[in-house]
Amino acid sequence: MKKKLAFTLFMSCFLIFNACAKQQSKSEKNISDVQKNETEINPEIEKLNRVLMQLSDECKAAIPNGNPQEFLQDLQAVLQSENDFSSEDLSPFYLIDKKHTVSSDYVPKNLIPLKKNELFDIDKDNLSLRPEAYEALKKLAEAALKDGVKLTVSSTYRSYEYQKNLFDYWVSVDGLEEAERESARPGTSQHQLGLALDFAPVDDAFDKTPAGKWVYENASKYGWSLSFPQGYEHVTGYRWECWHFRYIGKPAVEFQKKWFSNIQQFMIEFLDLWKSE
Q1: CA distance 20 to 13
Q2: How far is CA 191 from CA 61, 187, 213, 221, in A?
Q3: Quick check: 227 and 181 in contact, CB under 8 A?
Q4: pLDDT digits over 203-262, tens only?
Q5: What is the phi-psi region of residue 247: left when phi exceeds 0, alpha when psi lies from -120 to 50, beta otherwise?
Q6: How remote is the C-alpha of 103 from its chain's centroid?
Q7: Would you report the helix, strand and coil content of the chain in percent, each value rounded to 5?
Q8: Contacts (Cβ under 8 Å, ≥6 apart) of 63
Q9: Is 151 helix (H, G, I), strand (E, B) or coil?
Q10: What is the β-pairing status of strands 152-155 and 196-199?
Q11: What global pTM score does this model have?
């Protein structure tokens, strides 16, 4: 109830702002200061209203009350951070889930193979990441080592065909209904973007390991975001995967934590709507 109320207040700020209300209390000064001329409507605020109204009720409820100008400034920092990623590839904020897909022939450019090294372990061959994620992984792993923790990477980029075979395998093992909760259909996996990875062990035990505890505490400092949090299967489409992280960059992670209750899916859905407006 508290979060829903917060969103109502947040939305009210935008609506009042657009209506150019002339009577504002001192406590609302932060809103009135955004627009110096009350007769002039800010198109960014109007756009924000339109986008917010298209979000799911649960996503709306996750957004706290706040200053619209501050929200937009943080949003611009996130959009600007796209310049740190290759323009030859899909956006780091590309919406991919059970309803939004990528083509079967999409392969990220300049994938970097993960080889045996001193910073982190790998538990299988043929692992690779986009350069941006690879560099971020090295920084994350180096920081972990300084704290006495060595990370192990188990899965990274997966081709469409690889994902198809993997999904079919889990269907044969667990049945379609259960497989849908734990494995993505081909064309719907974050792994195909080349920006997601699974840490080992790839099971719920990771949550209790020193590596898992360290990653939860520190991954966001290096731009890594937990994709499928506990208790949000109805939102993400997948059960809790404590081992699966997606690299989106530090500005986006901070934006996600500050404005979207630290739920990646909510933020990515918002960014997708914002860009499509």
Answers
A1: 11
A2: 29, 10, 23, 21
A3: no
A4: 999 999 999 999 999 999 999 999 999 999 999 999 999 999 999 999 999 999 999 999
A5: beta
A6: 20
A7: 55, 10, 40
A8: 6, 7, 10, 52, 259, 260, 261
A9: coil
A10: antiparallel
A11: 0.87
